[in-house]
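Human: I'm a chemist; would you kindly supply sequence and structure tokens for a protein?

Assistant:
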Amino acid sequence: MRVKPTLICDFDGTVADSIAMILELINQLAPRYGYRTISPELFEQVRDLPLPKACQAVKFPLHKLGQAIAVVLHEYRKMIPDLEPCPDVVPMLEKLKGQGISLGLISSNHTENLLAWLEHNQIGCFDWVEGTSGILRKHRSIRARIRAHNLDRERVVYLGDEVRDIKAARRNRLKIVSVSWGLHSKSNLLKHNPDRVVNEPHELMEIIPELIS
């Protein structure tokens, strides 16, 4: 029996419109750590920079980075129920599911927070939801899900908004579709050679079935 095709989705910036909230939390911490607040204009300048260079641009002390990330994640996870879905993404995912494509959701957030968000927004299209063990271990979580669900890598596509999503997919020998409405810009995503980059959610209806047929 042929294994069902699967679309694995990143959460932050891909399915959930979280970038603005995360920036708000980062700016709230600016007086505490003594770095520049990030205006929309500054965000456009630093969004594609490697983390050390982004920290340098906003005058953030690198030796305090681990502590600051922990604080931001702690506060952010409490605010997840207030996030809005990215515009028009969920209806497209529901249509793909209606075409027989299985849907998974992966995030560095806790699984219970993801489930609460899905319930709050009345989103029921995902077949499984996985909170990972950390923001740097996504490739391991993807690998674990592939094994747990006995997925055929040739029939799996990963959907994400960051360069690290491209790298995580490639480490697992998966096709990757990048979205331009999240953290990283389209030009930066293209430099890392995803299989496709989409600018609008409706493009998924043609691209995803094509890649996993």
About this structure: The radius of gyration is 17 Å. The chain has eleven helices and six strands. Residues 19-81 form one domain.
